[in-house]
Amino acid sequence: MKISIFGTGYVGLVAGACFAEVGHQVYCVDNDAEKVEGLKNGIVPISEPGLDELVERNFAAGRLLFSTDAKAAIQFSELIFIAVGTPPEEDGSADLSHVLAVAATIGDNLNDYAVIVDKSTVPVGTADKVTATISARLSARGLDLPFDVCSNPEFLKEGSAIEDFTKAARTVVGTDSERARKIMRAVYAPYNRNHDKLIFMDVRSAELTKYAANAMLATKISFMNEIANLAERLGADIEQIRLGIGSDPRIGYHFIYPGCGYGGSCFPKDVRALSYSAEEVGYDAALIKAVETTNKYQRNVLYGKLARVFDGDLAGRTIAIWGLAFKPNTDDMREAPSRFLMEALWNAGAKVKAYDPEAGAVAEGHYGHRADFTLVERQEDAVADADALVICTEWKQFRVVDFSWLKSQLKAPVIIDGRNLYDPAELRRHGLLYYAVGRGDSASLFSPSTKTATRTAI
Fold first, then answer.
1. Cys staple from 222: which of 86, 238, 294, 357, with CB 3.0 to 4.6 Å?
2. In whole angstroms, what separates CA 341 from the centre of its chain?
3. Is 266 among the residues known to form the active site?
4. Residues near 445 by beta carbon (within 8 Å), at least 6 away in sequence
5. How many whole angstroms separate alpha carbon 305 and alpha carbon 341?
6. Phi-psi region of 232 (alpha: psi -120 to 50; beta: other; left: phi over 0)
7. Considering 18, 28, 260, 266, which one is annotated as catalytic?
8. CA distance 349 to 88
9. Which residues partner with 172 through β-bridges?
10. Crossing angle of helices 203-234/126-140, nearest 10°?
11. 228 contact partners, CB below 8 Å, separation of at least 6
12. This prediction's pTM
C-alpha cells in the first residue's frame, strides 16, 4: 500500500519504519528541512532501541522516503496518517493547530479518495474538526471528493516502541466507513496474522480510548505512590505491599511500582487534557484531578528527603544524580522527575553532577552550560566527592553496584533512591544511609510531629 505520514517525531517515525518493514511504500513528511535531510543521511533524531537500524534498512531499500513536499505525499497515497504533535496549552487542553494545519494541507492537495487517519493523541471531536477542515478546503477548490477520517490511536511505550507496534496487544480503529475498515485492515494485516487484534469502534470512542488507557496507567502509578508515602509514615515496606497486592489477578503487577512520579510526553499531557475535556462538558473528574495532584507532589519527594537528611542546608553541596531521562531506554526528559529535582537543588544553592547513558545531550540542550551543573560520561564520575547520590531513572546498569566502593566515593554515605533498586538491609550492612520510596528506613525522616503533615510539608 502507499502510505503518507505527516510528522517524523516519535509516533510518525516508528509507524513509518514499521510499515515499510513489511513492504508498504511509506512517504514520511515533515516541515523541518534539517530533520528531513538528517533522516536521509541516517540521523535519527530520537533515541529508541532498534529504530536506527529499521530506518536505515528501509530507506536503503527504497520503501521509506523522507520529504518536505506535502503535495507530492498526499497525491502519492491512499492512506494518510496525521502524526504531528499536540502539545498542551496553558489550560491543559490539547493544541490542535498542527493537526488542523495538516488537514488543511490535505484538503488543498487531495485529488482522489483517501483515508485520513488521526494517529496523534487528540481529544474527542477532533475527527469531526479534521473532516470539516478538509471539506472546507475541497469546497473552496470546487471539488466534492469522497474521503474518510478515522481514529487510530497509538499505544507505544518509549523504550519498547517497535515491539509495541509489531506485536501490539490491540489495534484500535474508530470509523463508521466500511471502505475505511477494509483499508485499515489491509495496512495492518502483516502484523495481524497470529490472531485478530483489530478492534473497530466509533470514532469518538476510539479517541477517548487513548486518553482512558493513559489515565488508567497514570492512576495506578499515583495510587502506588500514595500508598508508598503512607507506608513510610507507618514504618511499612511498599515493596512487600506491592507483592501482596500484585498477586491478586484483578490487580496484577504491571504499573504498580512506586517511585518519584511519572513524566514523559504522554501521561502528564494526557491526564491534563482528559481533565480539561471533562470540564468542557460540565463534569468534575475528581479522580483524574487527584492523579495529577498526587504526581505533582511525588516528583518533589526526592528533594524533600535530601532536605530532611541535611536539615535544609543544601547550599554549596554537590549532589550526584544517576538517571536524567523520565524512564530507561530513551533520552526523553519531558517532565522527568530529574528536572524537578535539579531545579529545586539549584534554587537551594546546590550543585549537580549527573550521569545518564542517553539523555546527556538532551539535558545540555535544556540547561546549557552552567557553573552548578556538570554532566559526566560515566556513572562512577558522578559520585566522586559528592555529598549524596540520588537515583532518578532505573537504568539496568544501576542495579548492581559495589556498595563498599560507593561509600568510599561519597562525602556522606547518603543514597536517595527514587526507584527502589536496592535492598535496604544490604546497604545498612555497608554503612550507607539509604532512603527509598515507601520503605521502612525512610520512616526515620519523619518525626512524630510530621507524620500527620499535609502534602505541602515536603
1. 294
2. 18
3. yes
4. 232, 305, 308, 309, 435
5. 11
6. alpha
7. 266
8. 31
9. 199
10. 150
11. 238, 258, 437, 438
12. 0.90
